[in-house]
Amino acid sequence: MRKKILLLFVGIALAISSQAQFILIEHLHCHGDSNAVLSIVPNWGQAPYSFLWNIGDTTQTIHNLPTGNYTCTITDDNSFDSTLTYFVTEPSAITLVVDLITPSHCDGFNNGAVAISVSGGLSPYTFLWREVHFRLHLFHGRHFWD
């Protein structure tokens, strides 16, 4: 009786879900700020993970970010990697428009008025004037608001 040896190779394809979740920990609150904080949480593969961001950081969380694209390559302990991109947005610049100026009639009279409109940024807005966006009974001269 002859013995035969049969070798059988079975290929197994591993499908790796390259899912990860970005968490924007700190949003940009003002146009032009650079204080956003972004973190990435992988939910695939084998820990520990290594991180490489397009800005050179190698931590899971990056800080002091302006608006822009941030790409992170995550590599797990089995050397599988995944690359994801997140865009940090910023509010538009605040725009102030003077809608109405009514000058006071004479020096010493407080019958002038100014109305302004504000857009952009993040509402609600805070004004230093007593009224929200309209000021009455102004004396002649310069008036400022923040």
From TrEMBL:
Residues 1-20 form the signal peptide. The lineage of its organism: Bacteria, Candidatus Falkowiibacteriota. It comes from the Bacteria. Pfam families: SprB. This is PKD domain-containing protein. Keywords: Signal.
